Amino acid sequence: MLVLAIAATANAQVTLKPHIGLNITDMSVSGGDASGKAGFLAGLSVAFGKKIYFEPGLQYVVKSSEITSSSAPSTWDPNTSLSGFRIPVAVGINLLGNEKSTLSLRGFGGASAFFITNVSDNIDNADINKTNFGVFAGAGLDIWKLFLDVSYEWSLTNLQENVSAIEVGKTNSLYLNAGFRFNF
Prior knowledge:
Number of helices: 1
């Protein structure tokens, strides 16, 4: 199977995609309310294939949210942020056009892992699940050498557990990425 995978990628169109973007993350909490705030990301992905493609990537992501609770101390800062590395792995299809068209529309979906490297001071670092998994779906628009992707990710892992005041559960994120396409 490894030989077949290597042979398939050797004959496939390869597209390098550096990008930057925004995310809005909504957190489910018990014992409080959360509202999503804009965060940012920067990353690189590589797409293999023509009509149907496989696209692994690596992104540095900062997710932000505002968490309020009536049981939190008055000195508690409601602005919460998480940062780390996200590894999305997508499978997509070119719906209109192809990888060499001036204008094309794509649909994609896949799974991701988010490895948290830093949390804001108002969250106990010991209670954070450092590895979070999710699934996502989205659409992309390619215009010449530029692309714009919009996707929504549903978390499969609770972010934090065993907390006395506020328990932060799953995070759901809207991602908006833009960048360049370099075909090889």
